[in-house]
């Protein structure tokens, strides 16, 4: 008997059948082939060896199953799990679809027939307009040209006639693009858009989208494609208050929808993408985007075989008409409604979709009496003097105006055109006419604010002398030669800044712009209230002083209101209150800041008083109020401006020339039977009458000014008056004080009418001056008195009796000082300018 251990009988595991005996091993190999690989290990036999282990048959191991899933394999779903999940999800979706289809019914028409009106009110609660009178005319599909039908399909849904009512793939793609920041998209078919317009509301919610989905499917089964397309074309919004293709055809091209050709139809189809922004008349800055969309629509028509390539090749963009037919918004009402709506959306108070649903009650800041006074002033001084039947140039005349309360920033009146339904473009907010010399005060304000000096080192004040020779090249400008001509090519020789402002001398202000630095001038203009996006404001060089920028009338009114408010700026506001049902909509808080120092703003005001008293704007004296302002004329007399203010009201008026057919700018030579139209004519006359009537009954207020120290002290002429200031110096302006340039005491310059001022010693304030003019040819502003403590809001800062003399004292910190004001020396002129020889306010 062998001494080797004998194998012990293996007891079968509980619950498992014993495996089959292992086959004999083949020589040099493993017995059983694949069976050996599936052998079950037996305790004590072979110590883990696969040979000698019973095989894993269906009766052994895991009852003949696969090996247990271990590690990462346990996380991978089996085919049974995938199949079960797929079938379960499918059953849920089918069940959900059937349930939704059963529950969601086609509702009664909602659309615009049941839409509420938005009510626009004056500040006193008087109704301005209701925009609920919908401009829409329903027509049948045969009354719409095939080109118009095809253009809409090319723009919105090219597969409309062959696809189902909904396109899940497009919806998923649109949702993905929106989520990944590629733009907000709807992915809706024309059927879905029609359902949203006609049956549902505009809110962007999941519930609304679900209803839209099921109603679209049902509608597609109950109505023909032609019926759905007809309904869509009659309910879509195209801008200009036009709902439906028929109203849009009249609003933009003054024709029936049956007359629309491919080019015009493609433009109307483009509007559906952005009705408010794609009107190229009101938003010429978006023309490139509009034309890109227009080309996309036409190319789609060619691709679908709806337009021949030869017809497409010869097409030019069809600019829409400026005029429209009446939509219940005649007179100033339509302008106001559209401007206020834009204000609400631009300031995120109410979005456009919500406004379209209606039901809002909007109280504006506009005063009905002032609004009426503005219309009367324009009619009396401009419109009633036109003879369009006998003078073609009179057909070009347009007018725009805006009036702002300087203390509150509230817009109290607007003038936009003779009638919204005749001249659609709002002239108060358009930004395409040069402001001309009305921009010059911003240059001088910047000079004081930045302590700027001439090229030969003299401090710029109202009495700084410049060479006013017409077409004299500016000095110190590193760019191309610039030599602007004065009006009528007049030469003035050595002339003070104040006189150059009175006479609007281009040569002086172009040089001053270089002395200050065009970038500094631009920053000051923006700080005062011009939009940073004002066309031609950037990179203008010395020409910035001549007003090449094309700010709107309302922009200019905001900037001049800042000067009137002693340099404090706050964005204008047009809305007092917005309610929707019982809910009051929150309005943005208006914030103010000291945009420029009070010295800079008030010294500018003192200079601009002279323009009204003995400069180019004497017509504005009809206001019967202390007034400051500046005239302006655009290049080739395409526009004439007057921008002015009293202590209570800042108002800007512009008369513009525009071809009523092409919308191109036109010169105003010969308008009203006059050789030319300039800012001192109709614009100043309108301003004077309006200001008088708008403030009638209010107490007369005098300007209370704190000026740049020694603002009216005489200065020597330029070093070389024949060539102007020396070319030496910093061309960017804003240089530091030159040695020896100090305020030396009280001065009364010859022939300037400058007041005599006395300022306390160090520690005193700019408000502690007394001054009086002596009359004479150069005598300037009159009737202000003021005292101050050296801070913007210190004691006495708003005092003023209008007695023709001024006095004051103070010991403030002098935080309001700017530049040379940091050193308070005897002789600094500080407050009141009087003019008993002309008029006492």
What does this entry look like structurally?
By secondary structure, the protein is an alpha+beta fold. The chain has helices at residues 34-37, 79-103, 146-156, 168-179, 190-198, 206-222, 225-235, 245-253, 262-271, 287-303, 309-313, 333-346, 352-357, 368-381, 440-449, 497-503, 506-516, 518-528, 553-564, 598-614, 682-694; strands at residues 119-121, 127-130, 135-136, 242-243, 360-364, 397-404, 411-415, 465-467, 494-496, 568-569, 575-580, 583-585, 593-594, 628-633, 639-645, 650-657. It contains 21 helices and 16 strands. The strands form five sheets. Strands 2-1-5-11-12 form a five-stranded mixed sheet, with helices on one face. It has a five-stranded antiparallel sheet with strand order 7-6-16-15-14, with helices on both faces. It is elongated and about 105 Å long.
List the helices and strands and how they pair.
Elements: H1 34-37, H2 79-103, E1 119-121, E2 127-130, E3 135-136, H3 146-156, H4 168-179, H5 190-198, H6 206-222, H7 225-235, E4 242-243, H8 245-253, H9 262-271, H10 287-303, H11 309-313, H12 333-346, H13 352-357, E5 360-364, H14 368-381, E6 397-404, E7 411-415, H15 440-449, E8 465-467, E9 494-496, H16 497-503, H17 506-516, H18 518-528, H19 553-564, E10 568-569, E11 575-580, E12 583-585, E13 593-594, H20 598-614, E14 628-633, E15 639-645, E16 650-657, H21 682-694
Parallel strand pairs: 1-5, 3-4
Antiparallel strand pairs: 1-2, 5-11, 6-7, 6-16, 8-9, 10-13, 11-12, 14-15, 15-16
Helix pairs in contact: 3-9, 3-10, 5-6, 5-7, 9-10, 14-21, 15-17, 15-18, 15-20, 16-20, 18-19
């Amino acid at each position: 008997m062998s001494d080797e251990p004998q194998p012990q009988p293996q007891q079968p595991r509980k619950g498992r059948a014993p495996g089959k005996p292992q086959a004999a091993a083949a020589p040099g190999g493993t017995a059983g082939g694949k069976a050996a690989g599936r052998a079950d290990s037996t305790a004590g036999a072979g110590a883990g060896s696969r040979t000698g282990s019973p095989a894993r048959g269906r009766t052994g191991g895991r009852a003949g199953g696969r090996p247990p899933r271990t590690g990462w394999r346990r996380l991978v779903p089996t085919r049974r799990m995938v199949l079960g999940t797929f079938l379960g999800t499918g059953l849920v979706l089918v069940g959900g679809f059937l349930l939704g289809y059963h529950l969601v019914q086609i509702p009664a028409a909602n659309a615009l027939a049941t839409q509420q009106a938005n009510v626009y009110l004056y500040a006193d609660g008087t109704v301005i307009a209701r925009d609920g009178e919908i401009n829409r005319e329903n027509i049948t599909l045969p009354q719409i040209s095939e080109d118009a039908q095809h253009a809409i399909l090319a723009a919105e849904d090219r597969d409309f006639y062959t696809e189902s009512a909904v396109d899940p793939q497009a919806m998923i793609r649109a949702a993905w693009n929106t989520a990944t920041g590629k733009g907000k998209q709807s992915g809706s078919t024309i059927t879905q858009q029609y359902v949203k317009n006609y049956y549902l509301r505009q809110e962007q919610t999941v519930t609304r989208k679900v209803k839209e989905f099921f109603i679209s499917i049902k509608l597609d089964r109950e109505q023909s494609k032609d019926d759905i397309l007809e309904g869509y074309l009659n309910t879509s919004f195209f801008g200009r208050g036009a709902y439906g293709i028929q109203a849009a055809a009249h609003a933009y091209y003054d024709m029936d929808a049956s007359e629309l050709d491919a080019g015009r139809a493609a433009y109307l189809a483009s509007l559906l993408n952005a009705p408010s922004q794609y009107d190229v008349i009101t938003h010429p800055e978006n023309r490139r985007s509009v034309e890109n969309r227009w080309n996309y629509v036409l190319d789609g028509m060619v691709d679908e075989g709806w337009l021949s390539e030869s017809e497409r090749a010869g097409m030019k963009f069809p600019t829409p008409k400026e005029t429209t037919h009446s939509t219940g918004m005649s007179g100033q009402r339509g302008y106001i409604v559209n401007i206020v709506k834009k204000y609400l959306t631009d300031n995120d108070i109410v979005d456009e979709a919500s406004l379209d649903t209606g039901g809002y009650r909007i109280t504006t800041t506009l005063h009905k009496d002032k609004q009426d006074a503005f219309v009367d002033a324009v009619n009396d001084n401009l419109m009633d003097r036109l003879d369009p039947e006998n003078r073609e140039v009179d057909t070009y005349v347009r007018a725009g105006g805006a009036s702002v309360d300087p203390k509150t920033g509230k817009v109290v009146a607007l003038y936009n055109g003779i009638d919204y339904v005749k001249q659609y473009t709002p002239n108060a907010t358009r930004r395409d006419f040069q402001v001309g010399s009305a921009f010059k005060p911003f240059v001088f304000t910047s000079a004081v604010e930045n302590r700027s000096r001439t090229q030969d080192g003299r401090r710029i004040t109202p009495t700084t002398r410049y060479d006013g020779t017409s077409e004299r090249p500016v000095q110190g400008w590193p760019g191309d030669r610039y030599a602007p001509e004065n009006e009528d090519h007049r030469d003035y020789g050595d002339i003070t800044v104040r006189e150059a402002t009175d006479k609007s001398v281009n040569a002086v202000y172009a040089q001053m712009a270089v002395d200050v630095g065009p970038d500094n001038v631009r920053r000051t203009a923006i700080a005062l209230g011009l939009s940073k996006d004002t066309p031609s404001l950037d990179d203008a060089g010395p020409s910035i002083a001549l007003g090449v920028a094309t700010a709107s009338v309302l922009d200019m009114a905001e900037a001049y209101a800042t000067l009137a408010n002693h340099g404090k700026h706050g964005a204008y506001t047009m809305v007092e209150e917005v309610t929707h049902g019982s809910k009051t909509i929150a309005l943005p808080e208006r914030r103010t800041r000291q945009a420029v120092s009070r010295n800079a703003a008030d010294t500018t005001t003192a200079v601009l008083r002279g323009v009204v008293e003995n400069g180019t704007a004497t017509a504005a004296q009809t206001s019967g109020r202390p007034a400051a302002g500046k005239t302006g004329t655009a290049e080739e007399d395409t526009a004439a401006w007057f921008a002015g203010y009293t202590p209570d009201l800042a108002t800007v008026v512009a008369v513009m020339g525009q071809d009523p057919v092409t919308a191109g700018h036109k010169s105003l030579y010969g308008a009203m039977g006059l050789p030319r139209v300039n800012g001192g004519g109709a614009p100043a006359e309108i301003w004077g009458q309006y200001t008088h009537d708008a403030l009638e009954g209010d107490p007369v207020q005098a300007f209370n000014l704190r000026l740049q120290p020694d603002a009216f002290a005489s200065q020597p002429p330029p070093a070389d008056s024949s060539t102007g200031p020396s070319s030496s110096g910093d061309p960017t302006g804003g240089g530091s004080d030159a040695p020896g340039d100090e305020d030396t005491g009280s001065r009364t310059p010859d022939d300037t009418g400058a007041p005599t001022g006395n300022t306390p010693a160090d520690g005193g304030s700019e408000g502690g001056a007394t001054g009086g003019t002596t009359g004479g040819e150069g005598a300037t502003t009159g009737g202000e008195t003021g005292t101050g403590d050296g801070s913007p809001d210190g004691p006495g800062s708003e005092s003023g009796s209008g007695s023709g003399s001024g006095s004051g004292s103070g010991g403030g910190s002098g935080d309001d000082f700017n530049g040379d004001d940091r050193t308070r020396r005897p002789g600094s002129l500080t407050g009141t300018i009087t003019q008993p020889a002309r008029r006492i306010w």
